[in-house]
Specification:
Distance between the termini of chain A: 37 Å
Strand content of chain B: over 45%
Number of strands of chain B: 11
Strand content of chain A: over 45%
Number of helices of chain B: 0
Oligomer: heterodimer
Number of helices of chain A: 0
Helix content of chain A: under 10%
Shape of chain B: globular
Radius of gyration of chain B: 14 Å
Radius of gyration of chain A: 13 Å
């Protein structure tokens, strides 16, 4: 079955280190998104991509970067991890850029920055 | 930008009773309203959605209503069961020149007491 996977599922890192979270989808969806989930804030958009070589900043993009070299993957990089980036990260994808297009979420990566 | 508020933040009901979760949004351009269910340790899963040209939608025990004039929409779960216990998120989507942006509520933790 087609799906969206994230790895690792759990990660502990130290302040200042570079961290990359992987997201892989087998639906052949054009659009991919990264969100972070924090208590009291719901899901907030970090970066998104509407296709290969396309990337865009979301609401909370500072300190994060993404690249899209193929349809299936959108890795999220924390350039220099900070304690404020301790969170649960979710990747999502959708097929089209239409008005009523639903997003489908991965299982999440729990990141702890010490 | 869009602001989505969700209430209540926690909700406990007896098995068999109904549960109602309410969301309001600020931007009248929002035109798509999905609801997600998130179980512990998992990613959000779409359970029902409604488009701006529809006032109500029902799927078995779950229904969603939309009042565009008042800018609010609600999730109704009837005959609740213990497996309905989860965190529920509402979202509002706006289609702009750059694509379909989702704005999420802060979540409602629903507990169904057997």
């Amino acid at each position: 079955d087609a799906e969206i996977t994230q790895s690792p599922r759990h990660k502990i890192t130290e302040t200042g280190r570079q961290v990359t979270l992987a997201c892989h989808q087998t639906w052949n969806h054009n659009n991919m998104f990264w969100y972070r989930q924090d208590l009291g804030h719901g899901l907030r958009l970090i970066h998104y991509s509407y296709g290969v070589q396309d990337t865009n900043k979301g609401e909370v993009s500072d300190g994060y970067s993404v690249s899209r070299s193929n349809t299936e993957d959108l890795p999220l990089t924390l350039e220099s991890a900070a304690s404020s980036q301790t969170s649960v990260y979710f990747c999502a994808s959708s097929e089209y850029r239409g008005a009523w297009e639903t997003q489908y979420f991965g299982p999440g990566t729990r990141l702890l920055v010490l | 930008g869009e602001n989505v508020e969700q209430h209540p933040s926690t909700l406990s009901v007896q098995e068999g009773d109904s549960a109602v979760i309410k969301c309001t949004y600020s931007d009248s351009a929002s035109n798509y309203f999905p609801w997600y269910k998130q179980e512990l340790g998992k990613g959000p899963q779409l359970i029902i959605d409604i488009r701006s040209n529809v006032g109500e939608k029902k799927d078995q025990r779950i229904a969603v209503t939309l009042n565009k004039t008042a800018k609010h929409f609600s999730l109704h779960i009837t005959e609740t069961q213990p497996e309905d216990s989860a965190v529920y998120f509402c979202a509002a989507s706006i289609l702009s020149n750059t694509g379909n942006q989702f704005y999420f509520g802060t979540g409602t933790s629903l507990t169904v007491i057997p």
